Amino acid sequence: MCKGGFLLDIDIISGLYHYGLTIIKYEQDYCLVDLKTQEVYEKMSIYYIRRLLRSWNKHRKNIESVI
Q1: Do the domain assignments include residue 49?
Q2: Tell me: the pLDDT tens digits for 18-34?
Q3: Contacts of 1 (CB under 8 A, 6+ apart)
């Protein structure tokens, strides 16, 4: 953690950006934010966000292999 802010793994940030999302820290958790609509999604842990990204990426790879 850096003074006055927080550090996140670049893989998480770039992975979310691929899906049009970014992340903000809210209290002890994080929220995803849609870059296009600015919609803020419910609070979640960084662990849950990592799991979401893995699932989305796995699903995307399965779709790409079919095309």
Answers
A1: yes
A2: 999 999 988 888 999 99
A3: 7
How is 21-51 classified by DSSP, letter by letter? Answer: EEEEEETTEEEEEETTT-PEEEEE-HHHHHH
pLDDT for the residue numbered 60? 80
In a domain, 4, yes or no: no
Answer yes or no: is 1 within a domain: no
Domain count, the chain: 1
Which is nearest to 46 in space by CA: 35, 30, 33, 34? Answer: 30
Could you give the percent of the chain with pLDDT greater than 90? 57
Residue 31 lies in domain: 10-66
